[in-house]
Design brief:
Layout lengths: L5 E7 L5 E10 L4 E10 L5 E7 L2 E6 L6 E6 L4 E6 L5 E3 L7 E4 L7 E2 L6 E3 L3 E4 L6 E8 L23 E8 L5 E8 L15 E5 L7 E10 L5 E9 L15 E2 L5 E5 L6 E5 L5 E6 L2 E3 L7 E4 L4 E8 L5 E8 L3 E3 L7 E7 L5 E8 L2 E9 L4 E7 L2 H4 L6 E8 L2 E8 L10 E6 L12 H4 L4 H6 L3 E5 L8 H12 L6 H25 L3 E11 L1 H12 L5 E5 L8 H4 L3 H8 L6 H10 L11 E6 L4 H12 L4 E5 L10 H20 L9 H15 L17
Helix pairs in contact: 4-5, 5-6
Length: about 700
């Protein structure tokens, strides 16, 4: 599964005749990650390979042209290129100096969470609707500090990722002249932010002023008290004027010329369009979201009276789809509920889209969508090798407790026999347990398919949907904003503890039907999932083994070292050393609840931060079975194929050992199993009883 294809992007020509598909592969034989750009004839399915490189991104059709534009590294760092209809490639922006973005914390101006370090000349770009004007963004290192000594006003972890930089936004006119529109420095903390690195600007038509392309972009503007704040600027590129100002549309354009919005919560959620007259048109109840990062497509066809939008279904079977909203109704592109339509792109001039159709056990394939008739044309699998693999069986599920409901999937063991009871592994990360093939956003470096092949039931469980509950939505907003009106314990309950309660509800239901052995249950998760894993093993006695991937939260030391003390003040009322706040910390923070743990916990980290180390050290102090694995020079989603293989193997062996009592028999692993057997003996002897007495649970699970 490490080498499975992962589709990153699609694009489509304005006339809807050709599509582009960008696919990433990890190759264990070379230990390299490579991207391939494939052009597809959307009538015949014929393909040609246009480009192969370590980096390709931001693929677009150039308006009013048969050519494509891409960001790619052709030996001079990542730059902006044109790919002509005959396949020839040439630079669109010359002489852009490069900066490092990626996994190197000592030289990069910005860290990547998913990819190896690359040098970037052009960070992002966008064409005006007529294809004549182009904006693009760059960055450069400024005033580099000596590598020996730095005075830091606000030292936060990691302390070695401080490279002062300036990002710049430029506009190119049809005559080739360029204009510097805005700059921003990124040197105020160890995580410098490149402001103009991702969709720094957008194009829109200026209502009532003809067809002049208008660029909307961010700029630093001084306030009356002397501060600099970001504000949207509007530039009419033909007139060269920022006047008169006009109101930017703050939502997704609807089929009637207004802005789409979703109102209500839970079963009462409805899609509405707010018209310029102030009138609100309601299309009726919906079970999806639009405008999400996982389904971002939004394109209107005014002459045809409809718009098409990516839809993220969060109730029932979680999946991505495509909807058409006309003057009076909503229609869905018909796809089986065990499949998703992902990475959709719609043509400018014709009602045609290209999408990737895939499922949890269905490898990705290319489809053409006729947006008039809502019919699909199959254009073949991305990689036939995976299409020929015998599929595992997955079932969509939903679990309920009181007024709470979560969705997910159950991946059954190969050779599953009805009536047999199996060990289970819960997988958690957020809301991305959906119908996508070997999805790295939830898969991380967990061998989910291999676990199924080895006789485990794999239980994917999504986070509770925020928009289903007013208080939960407010709790998440308060967590992100670091302030609000809800009591801190209510935020902890809604954001973390409710999720742990739903794991218990799901496993109880699966045990009751005889599928899962409740005495042999484990849990895995990275990032947000790591937070939940750490909470789950300290707030419940359900789990016997866990793997916590590159994350953590509520660590006492991180109150000062990771810049999150405003959040923790809001949650707990003060620092962990504040007598008035101490009880609140003890009710929630895993470090203070290590004595409650009944699971063997494996930690896998790409960066060693306080939030990752504190809980591990607390478990070791309490003589609980725990192991910490570190992958240097890695990213949050491991990008080196050999490291992913090591992480997956370690997870396989850890769960085999603790849930099935099995060892690999590999003599190279003798020391590993000696450590683990010693941990198991300590656990059996309950060696932690005197060292760390359990804390009472704040909720009964």
């Amino acid at each position: 599964m490490i080498e499975a294809p992962h589709v990153l992007e699609t694009a489509i020509s304005g006339d809807g005749q050709r599509g582009l598909v960008l696919v990433r592969y990890d190759d264990l034989s070379t230990n390299q990650r490579t991207r391939y750009l494939i052009e597809v004839d959307l009538q015949t399915g014929a393909r040609r390979h246009l480009l192969k490189a370590e980096w390709i991104s931001r693929i677009e059709a150039i308006p009013n042209s048969e050519d494509w534009s891409v960001l790619t590294d052709q030996g001079e760092g990542v730059q902006l290129y044109r790919i002509c209809a005959d396949g020839q490639i040439s630079r669109l922006v010359a002489g852009a100096s490069t900066v490092l973005i990626g996994a190197d914390p000592r030289r990069a101006v910005l860290m990547s969470t998913t990819e190896a370090s690359h040098r970037f000349g052009v960070l992002d770009y966008g064409w005006a609707p007529d294809g004549r004007y182009l904006w693009y963004s760059t960055a450069r290192v400024v005033d580099p500090l000596p590598g020996v000594f730095q005075v830091m006003e606000n030292p936060l972890e990691p302390l070695d990722s401080y490279v002062p930089n300036q990002s710049e936004l430029r506009l190119r006119s049809p005559d080739g002249n360029e204009r510097l529109l805005a700059t921003a420095r990124g040197e105020d903390r160890p995580y410098p932010t490149i402001v103009y690195g991702a969709q720094a600007a957008t194009w829109q038509a200026k209502t009532g002023q003809g067809n002049e392309p208008v660029l909307v972009y961010k700029a630093l503007v001084p306030t009356a008290d002397g501060r600099l704040v970001f504000s949207l600027r509007h530039l009419g590129v033909i007139s060269g004027s920022h006047e008169p100002p006009f109101q930017e549309a703050s939502g997704i354009h609807g089929p009637n010329g207004g802005t789409l919005e979703i109102s209500g919560f839970g079963a009462e959620r409805a899609l509405r369009e707010r018209l310029s007259s102030g009138e609100v048109k309601t299309f009726g109840p919906i079970d999806f979201e639009i405008g999400t990062a996982l389904a971002p497509l939004a394109r209107t066809y005014p002459s045809l009276g409809f718009g098409v939008y990516g839809a993220r279904y969060r109730t029932g079977v979680v999946r991505n789809g495509l909807i058409r909203v006309s003057k009076d109704q909503i229609d869905s592109v018909p796809v089986s509920h065990d499949l998703s339509l992902s990475q959709c792109s719609a043509a400018d001039l014709q009602p045609v889209a290209v999408c990737i159709r895939e499922g949890l056990n269905a490898p990705p394939e290319i489809v053409r969508v006729d947006l008039r008739t809502l019919t699909l044309r199959d254009l073949g699998a991305i990689d036939e090798r995976y299409a020929r693999l015998p599929a595992l069986k997955a079932e969509a599920r939903a679990w309920h407790k009181d007024d709470l409901t979560v969705s997910g999937f159950v991946l059954l063991p190969r050779g599953y026999r009805k009536g047999a009871s199996y060990p289970a592994i819960v997988v958690t990360h957020g809301g991305d347990a959906d119908n996508r093939f070997v999805n790295p956003e939830i898969q991380w470096s967990y061998p989910l398919q291999q676990w199924s092949e080895r006789g485990f039931v794999v239980v994917y469980i999504n986070d509770l949907v925020q928009s289903d509950n007013v208080e939960r939505l407010e709790a998440f907003r308060q967590w992100f904003a670091k302030k609000g009106t809800l009591p801190g314990d209510k935020v902890v309950q809604r954001v973390w503890l409710d999720q742990v309660a739903m794991f218990k509800a799901a496993i109880d239901a699966l045990a009751q039907e005889g599928l899962v052995d409740p005495s042999r249950v484990g849990i895995v998760g990275y990032s947000r999932g790591s937070q939940i894993v750490n909470m789950a093993v300290t707030q419940s006695d359900l789990f016997r083994v866990a793997s916590s991937g590159d994350g953590g939260y509520f660590a006492p030391s991180s109150y000062w070292t990771e810049g999150i003390n405003p959040t923790q003040q809001m949650l707990f009322g003060g620092s962990p050393y504040d007598a008035a706040a101490r009880k609140n910390w003890e009710r929630a923070a895993p470090v203070f609840r290590a004595g409650n743990v009944r699971a063997a916990v494996l930690f896998q980290a790409a960066r060693v931060l306080s939030s990752r180390v504190d809980f591990f050290q607390a478990l070791r102090a309490c003589k609980k079975p725990a192991e910490f694995g570190f992958f240097p020079d890695e990213t949050h989603l491991l990008h080196v194929p050999s490291n992913r293989a090591v992480a997956m193997t370690q997870n396989l062996e850890w769960f085999d050992f603790w849930l099935k009592g099995e060892e690999s028999g590999d003599p190279v692993k003798a020391q590993q199993y000696m450590r683990w057997r010693r941990m198991r003996n300590d656990l059996a002897a309950d060696a932690s009883k005197e060292a760390c007495p359990p804390q009472p649970a704040p909720n009964a699970f």
